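Worked example 3 (structure in, sequence out).
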């Protein structure tokens, strides 16, 4: 499954906002970072470079909090009046296309007795042996996928 730890993202955002307000190179440039809705972060600055610098700072804080950068879907800074706005959305859940890719990888490269089922925005993998499930986990961790995967309910 692919879930966002909302508390960790919120903590990273608050740390980034605090650092933006106190850092010398962000003084007087109108740089800010804040929530914009439920799953979006808005970055504002008076230049495109400053907006990207705030985004890099936010990414650094996310990495330190243990949140994968694959959950971020950052756009390009857009000029809005006198300031640049950069809207970054947070991706949660596995899309149907990604779930089909992952299940195809499991069918093609995984052990024989493993089944993968798509259930909403999750992928349920079942097997009779725990060793096969561990093999699937290591297989998926080794692949370069577009989503941040978490493995839960392991029995």
């Amino acid at each position: 499954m692919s879930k966002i730890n909302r508390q960790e993202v919120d903590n990273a955002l608050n740390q980034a906002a605090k650092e933006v307000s106190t850092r010398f190179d962000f003084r007087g440039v109108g740089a800010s970072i804040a929530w914009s809705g439920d799953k979006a972060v808005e970055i504002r600055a008076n230049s495109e470079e400053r907006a990207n610098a705030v985004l890099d700072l936010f990414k650094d804080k996310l990495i330190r909090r243990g949140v994968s950068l694959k959950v971020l879907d950052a756009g390009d800074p857009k000029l809005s009046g006198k300031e640049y706005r950069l809207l970054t959305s947070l991706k949660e859940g596995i899309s149907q296309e990604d779930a089909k890719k992952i299940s195809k990888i499991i069918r093609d490269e995984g052990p024989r007795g493993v089944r993968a089922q798509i259930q909403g925005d999750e992928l349920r993998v079942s097997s009779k042996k725990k060793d096969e499930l561990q093999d699937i986990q290591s297989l998926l961790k080794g692949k370069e996928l577009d989503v941040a995967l978490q493995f839960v309910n392991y029995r």
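Notes: Residues 98 and 154 are 21 Å apart (CA to CA). The first strand starts at residue 32 and ends at 35.
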